[in-house]
């Protein structure tokens, strides 16, 4: 749980509206606030208390639409033990809340200076942390303001409430809420919303996990330096709002707010909005720090996980693919339905890792091999499963064209695919790049039934030997190379049957490549000329990437290129 240091440099958030302060020296004001701060270590669980306060103010604020789901969520308490603890805390702080509420009302009726009233509240709350001071003051205001609007909402149907409302002149006030008083309540609403926004931020700061961000972290200490002044101006706004309600119930609808009072409420709302924006930026910095810590921790966990021995592959796969009990992170390529990660338990799993720019040619070759391996086997009998893990950096903007590109790729794959790239954690992306050396080209990482990496990239092994390379381990690849004879069939097998016919016919075959169209034209012309002159049966095969061939466009047409094979008969 975060701690609240006191820093003299928190006056950075004070703007140039010094006329709102009864003293001219901002530094002196901060020294006065700091002088009242003497926390004795008592803890207040501010989050559930603020949720309660927020619910009251949301329901009380004039003509405010309430999200019933959110309001109910705030009031939900997980179990009886927590409820008992919360009620015990309310019992411990109720006297303090009542004292603050009375102090605010009395000072407002007495016409006390707003700054002096605010300082008196700080003195009453001297033993509490900064966040507790703020939430307790806001709770006192919610008690006062909530009572006002509770009577306003029920006095027409409840005789007791009606009698009390008459004493507070509520019927007369409510008659004018759609007229002269509307702008005043609108101004109050804006200020109350700003107060809750700042308070919500400060409560969130307190709730930050201390195991990921400590008090001495620069990001956190910088944010904490701004808390005292933010608390001051929010409590100062509490005093201003309470004064308006007290004056209104005391003088009735005939009370006309002065220009200076209206200006004060608007200026306070503007100031709190600026403070809120500053706090949100500081909070974003803190959360980035927390995410970096969590990501580093997750990365180290992955390293340790792959260095450990497991009885099956579930721990490893769940770490790689985001998988909660209620989430089905995979899509079955054959049915296009989402499935649980359990379908991979104790199986050899081939992780096809790529970005969204994987070529159709590469996918076609892999799909052909994959389908051939299942010609005479059911999925339950198959020796291995393939899972596509799409790697998309989280900083990349995910728009509709990107989504469509992903969906097109996913729908074309017959094997399992991750439901969405966002399920792949940042730490996993880092691990894939750092340890498995993934850059831009696809890789095929092989995990055995225990989740051990038996090949960091079996893609070329599969392209050359297909399913015969099973179980796709590095040892199996080494054995296959020892058995293999270096010959042309090894290179062209599976590309085009025509090439195998040329070999049987004893023809000379030239292998060539490159994306220099002019060079290729000269080479093929010269080769044909020599072959014709010498009466040599010559064929030519272009070996290279289709992307380079595509660059050359129509210039390749005279060479009669087909797929990866060029036939140049003489």
Task: Describe this protein's structure.
The chain is α/β, with parallel strands linked by helices and 570 residues long. It folds into 3 domains: 8-294, no CATH class; 314-474, Glutaredoxin (3-Layer(aba) Sandwich); 488-566, no CATH class. It is 56% helix and 8% strand. It has 22 helices and 11 strands. Helix 15 links the parallel strand 4 (384-390) and strand 5. It starts with 25 loop residues before the first helix and ends with a strand. InterPro entries: SEO_C, SEO_N, SEOA. The chain crosses the membrane at residues 134-155.
Brief digest:
By secondary structure, this protein is of the alpha/beta class. Helix content is 56%, strand content 8%. The protein has three domains: 8-294, no CATH class; 314-474, Glutaredoxin, CATH 3.40.30; 488-566, no CATH class.
Keywords:
570 residues; two-stranded parallel ribbon; 11 strands; alpha/beta; Sieve element occlusion N-terminal domain-containing protein; 7-stranded mixed beta sheet; Glutaredoxin
């Amino acid at each position: 749980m975060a701690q609240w240091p006191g820093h003299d440099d928190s006056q950075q958030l004070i703007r140039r509206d010094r006329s709102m302060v009864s003293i001219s020296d901002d530094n002196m004001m901060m020294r006065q606030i700091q002088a009242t701060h003497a926390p004795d270590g008592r803890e207040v669980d501010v989050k559930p208390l603020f949720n309660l306060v927020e619910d009251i103010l949301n329901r009380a604020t004039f003509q405010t639409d309430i999200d019933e789901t959110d309001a109910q969520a705030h009031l939900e308490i997980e179990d009886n033990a927590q409820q008992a603890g919360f009620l015990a805390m309310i019992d411990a702080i109720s006297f303090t809340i009542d004292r603050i509420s009375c102090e605010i009302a009395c000072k407002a009726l007495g016409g006390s200076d707003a700054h002096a009233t605010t300082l008196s509240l700080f003195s009453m709350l001297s033993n509490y942390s900064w966040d507790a001071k703020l939430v307790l003051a806001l709770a006192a205001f919610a008690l006062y303001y909530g009572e006002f609007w509770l009577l306003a909402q029920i006095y027409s149907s409840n005789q007791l409430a009606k009698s009390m409302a008459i004493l507070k002149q509520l019927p007369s006030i409510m008659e004018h809420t759609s007229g002269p008083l509307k702008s005043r309540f609108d101004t109050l609403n804006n200020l109350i919303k700003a107060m809750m926004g700042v308070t919500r931020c400060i409560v969130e700061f307190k709730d930050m996990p201390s195991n990921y961000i400590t008090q001495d972290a620069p990001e956190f200490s910088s944010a904490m330096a701004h808390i005292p002044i933010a608390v001051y101006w929010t409590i100062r706004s509490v005093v201003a709002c309470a004064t308006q309600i007290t004056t209104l119930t005391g003088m009735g609808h005939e009370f006309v707010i002065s220009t200076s009072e209206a200006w004060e409420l608007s200026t306070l709302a503007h100031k709190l909005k600026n403070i809120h924006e500053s706090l949100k930026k500081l909070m974003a910095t803190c959360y980035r720090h927390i995410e970096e810590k969590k990501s580093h921790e997750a990365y180290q966990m992955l390293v340790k996980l792959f260095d450990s021995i497991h009885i099956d592959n579930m721990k490893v796969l769940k770490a790689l693919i985001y998988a909660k009990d209620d989430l089905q992170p995979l899509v079955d390529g054959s049915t296009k339905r989402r499935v649980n990660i359990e379908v991979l338990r104790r199986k050899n799993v081939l992780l096809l890792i790529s970005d969204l720019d994987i070529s159709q040619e590469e996918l076609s070759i892999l799909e052909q091999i994959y389908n051939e391996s299942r010609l005479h086997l059911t999925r339950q009998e198959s020796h291995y499963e393939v899972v596509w893990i799409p790697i998309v950096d989280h900083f990349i903007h995910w728009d509709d064209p990107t989504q469509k590109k992903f969906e097109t790729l996913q729908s074309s794959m017959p094997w399992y695919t991750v439901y969405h790239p966002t399920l792949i954690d940042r730490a996993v992306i880092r691990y894939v790049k750092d340890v498995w050396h993934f850059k831009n080209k696809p890789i095929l990482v092989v995990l055995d039934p225990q989740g051990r990496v038996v090949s960091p990239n079996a893609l070329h092994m599969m392209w050359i030997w297909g399913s015969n390379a099973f179980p796709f381990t590095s040892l199996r690849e080494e054995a296959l190379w020892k058995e293999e004879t270096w010959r042309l069939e090894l290179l062209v097998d599976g590309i085009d049957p025509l090439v195998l016919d040329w070999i049987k016919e004893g023809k000379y075959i030239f292998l060539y490549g490159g994306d220099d169209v002019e060079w290729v034209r000269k080479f093929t012309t010269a080769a044909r000329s020599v072959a014709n002159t010498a009466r040599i049966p010559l064929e030519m095969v272009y070996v290279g990437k289709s992307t380079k061939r595509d660059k050359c466009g129509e210039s390749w047409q005279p060479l009669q290129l087909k797929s990866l094979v060029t036939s140049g008969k003489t």
